[in-house]
Amino acid sequence: MAGDNKYPIVRKTKPTFYFVGVTTSQSSIMKVFPRWMEALDRPEIVIEGLDHNIHDEPEAYRQTVAQIKYDPLSLGALVTTHKIDLLEAARDMFDDLHSSAVLIGEVSCISKQGHKLWGHAKDPLTSGLSMDAFLEEGHFGRTGGHLLCFGAGGSGKAISLHLINKENPTDQPERMIVVNRSQGRLDGLQAMVESLETDIEFVYIQNADPQRNDEIMAGLPEGSIVINATGMGKDTPGSPVTAAGIFPRNGIAWEINYRGELDFWHQAMAQRESRNVFVEDGWLYFLHGWTQVIAEVLHTEFDEETFNMLADTAKDLRPALVFNPQVLFKDSKLQTKEG
What is this structure's pTM? Predict the structure, then answer.
């Protein structure tokens, strides 16, 4: 196996779980992970961050995959931000891909089964668990709301797939609008949607102007959901909308990240009372995302009791979120990671 490798490999002396991201040292997982390993009676496993530039060079991604594939004590990884780019760069290095990874065209989890390297897309499951936790059953049927998703990358695809797979039509929006800075990601999402059967009307809009996004958001009916899945406010500055943007009355705003400047979250919080907007951040998404990947890499399963135990173990490490009106006066520029 190692004979096929042309990349330098660091031989680890401890079982190592990798976090592939952009600013991994700033993530709460670097403190949460050791607690979780203690709680799971696996204290010998350590975590290591591997930072990449957004849309990094293919060879950089291949080096990361090679490290995991060829080092015996490199157990696997959670991948964020780079999920699509990493798979596009290193698809041939995986021995097998889960059907979800093939459908969505991304890898958010890298695991090993014997000597084989596997790629998985966990986002459809984890985004679904997170969304279902704050969204009441029959929300769309009851409110007539639509869904607006800023970002057509991995998370945008996963949320789309989760809604398409809903069995009850009242749990599906009549219309889902997806806005992205670049056309390529929209084309990828459209190809996925068109390969499936759905009654949801998908609208794809290529746009990089926050003021135009304000106009799109203003056209939503009451009860609609607006999601920031661009990475803005965490991986890149700003928000996909401006401070003048009007959120749908009686609607929901979901910022899928839990750390960073989170401009979108602050913008939504400013209208929590005046527009009766329910505002959700990404902490639960973080918990589901990590626990599902850890379970896959460690070849185990976490039941509800175990998940709740791990969530309780991590709760005091959750970054405080305090609404800051000054954020509303910042200049908003659409520079998304999904481009």
Answer: 0.90
